[in-house]
Write a structure and sequence with these properties.
The complex is a heterodimer of chains A (about 130) and B (about 130).
Chain A lengths: L6 H5 L10 H26 L4 H9 L2 H29 L5 H27 L3
Helix pairs in contact in A: 2-4, 4-5
Chain B lengths: L20 H32 L1 H12 L1 H28 L6 H29 L1
Helix pairs in contact in B: 1-2, 1-3, 1-4, 2-3, 3-4
Classes of the chains: A mainly alpha (about 130), B mainly alpha (about 130).
Chain lengths: ~130, ~130
């Protein structure tokens, strides 16, 4: 069946990735949030050196730390999914492109799921 | 359309260009990004272990306190700082600044020097004060 849309309609708002500038924008947006949140997260990690299990649980029981940690997990996982997608699209042109692209999304979601589960569990102290 | 094979000549690629700092920092940005990607497995291991209980946490803490663990953390912290500075460089470029030959080379060198310097300062701080 022939495509009745005009060439202009097909390309309007689309880049070569068929998603317009959304990828670029999301990557920059999460870069900013990563920069802010990871700065906090790194200082939290450094503050936990030598504090042991009890110190770790006490720190992650703090609501501000819990929320910041949950946000950084989401922000970082979105950012790394986009970044790895770019790497796959640049280097993989054969039949492995789609399995790797799907695997990349699953990996990012798995990391986000595990991280959020752990943070929520520590926040509620169970 | 990426599967379409063509006999048309490709534009000159990596091998014909003289090595420049900007090239090195371009691929380093990608490599550090890839390292940070897979390193998140260690981050969630640490978080899940702490959420699971004292025994699991001790196992993770033992690993990160070992020589190999510390080397990985040192490398991981450098990768994070390098990727962060590389990202800042991209933000400068996004505004249309810093794209000239001289400035972009200086920015590339500053990215490497800055990331190495910050990593050493951070770990000195950890060793001295933590």
């Amino acid at each position: 069946m022939s495509d009745m849309r005009t060439p202009l309609r097909r390309v309007r708002g689309m880049g070569s990735a068929h998603g317009g500038t959304d990828h670029f924008w999301q990557q920059r947006l999460t870069a900013i949030s990563n920069f802010i949140l990871l700065t906090i997260f790194v200082f939290v990690i450094i503050s936990l050196i030598g504090e042991g299990y009890e110190g770790m649980r006490a720190t992650f029981g703090n609501p501000i730390v819990g929320v910041a940690a949950a946000l950084v997990i989401v922000s970082a996982c979105v950012h790394m999914r986009l970044g790895m997608q770019t790497i796959i699209e640049d280097y993989v042109h054969g039949p492995m492109k789609w399995p790797l692209s799907i695997g990349n999304i699953f990996f990012a979601c798995l990391i986000a799921g595990l991280g959020l589960y752990a943070i929520v569990k520590m926040s509620f102290g169970v | 359309m990426s599967d379409v094979k063509s006999n048309r000549p490709l534009s000159p690629h990596l091998t014909i260009y003289r090595f420049r700092p900007t090239m090195a920092m371009s691929i380093m940005h990608r490599i550090t990004g890839g390292a940070l990607y897979f390193g998140t497995l260690l981050v969630v291991w640490w978080l899940v272990a702490a959420a699971s209980g004292p025994e699991a946490f001790e196992t993770a803490a033992w690993f990160f306190d070992s020589i190999i663990g510390k080397l990985i953390l040192f490398g991981y912290s450098w990768a994070l700082l390098h990727h962060a500075l590389g990202g800042l460089r991209h933000f400068v470029w996004d505004t249309g600044h810093g794209l000239s030959k001289e400035t972009s080379t200086k920015l590339a060198q500053a990215t490497l020097a800055g990331s190495l310097g910050l990593t050493v300062v951070m770990w000195l701080g950890i060793v001295l004060f933590a």
